[in-house]
Give the backbone structure.
Amino acid sequence: MEAFFYLIPALFVVVGVFGVVRTLRRSSGISRAWRHGRTAEARCLRAYTTTSGGAGDTAVTTTLHHVYEFTTAEGRVVRIDEPNGPRTVVEGDFVTVHYLPERPEGATAQPPAQGRLAVETGCLLAFFVVFIGIALAFMGAAHVIFSVWGDVMP
């Protein structure tokens, strides 16, 4: 029974660490593409939405996606699917994408906004740190309770 109070929070910690790593990789990749990458003209091939939530009393979240296609400086044709794009871009529009030559499939059509990226990254990291902290505090409290309970019980 005690293992349950250690394994579940440990799983939460692993998920939180995974979230931190993913957030930092994403932020770093976008920032590097903006600062050190190349640009290309991309055509919006498709715009579509996805929804999530809505079960029971939960809110429905709608995400706008764009599918872009561009040709790298080396002549390689790349197609990307980017979520949370601008609502003003429709099929057939041309936009500028930023990409790293070694990883063009990680391109972004988001215009450079280092400040916004920093704030988004900071908020996500704060969330994950609090999430991990709560899981660790729960594990610590469970350990103390089980230690005291073990001393009281014969």
The chain has two helices and five strands.
